Amino acid sequence: MDENNSELSLSFQSSSFESIEDGDRAEDIQPYQFEPELSEGSSEDDEDLTQNGDVDMEPRLGNTNWCDCGHCESMPTANECICCQELNRMTDKMEELPSPTQCITEHPGFEPVCLNQYVLETAYYQYRQQYGEIQVTTEERNRYTAYRQLARWGWGYLGKSVRVRLSACATIAIRNKFQSNQYKGFEEA
Question: Mean pLDDT in runs of 10 for the chain (189 residues)?
Fold first, then answer.
């Protein structure tokens, strides 16, 4: 190789916001510019909640006319009066089966995920490691963990302070397994 042809040329240029032309200023950058926009008429609730569109919750108190699975009971608040058949995530779970069930509590995965005390104990260890010990009775802890398990099973990871309404039938099954004299019910985040 010829020594004259083997020269290495390096160059370095620095840039700063001061050298940017007026039309390319950092203030002109807009976040989420390429993210899909929420279409009119859709909301997060459409994905997770009712398949029936807008539902008037008040007539649900004191009856189970709203239940389509046959396993719901009247709940203390209208917000808790929702059937698994109205929750897309629960119906999707039931439709995964070769022979879909009418109620999420009849799904072969419901008992091991939400009612098995050993699974709940293990799930609680994960919760405790991440968030710390909760000072409640074993029944309350199992019930709380079962609700979390149901949400995780149906919705996956929700994130901090994100809550979903659980079906009355599943809530009743969990409460019947892990009983208490007093229940809190659904609380908004």
Answer: 54 49 54 47 44 58 93 91 96 95 97 97 93 90 94 89 90 93 56
Q: Which domain holds residue 84?
A: 45-177
DSSP state of 101: -
What's the helix, strand, coil split of the chain in %, to 5?
Answer: 45, 0, 55
Contact 170, 154 (CB under 8 A): no
Residue 70 lies in a domain: yes
The angle subtended at Cα 108 by Cα 107 and Cα 111, nearest 5°, is 95
CA gap 141, 162 in Å, rounded:
20
Count the domains in the chain: 1
- What is the rounded CA–CA span in Å between residue 101 and residue 107? 6
Which residues lie below 8 Å from residue 123, measured CB to CB, with a gap of 6+?
Answer: 145, 148, 149
pTM score: 0.68
For 171, the enclosing helix (H) or strand (E) is: helix 168-177
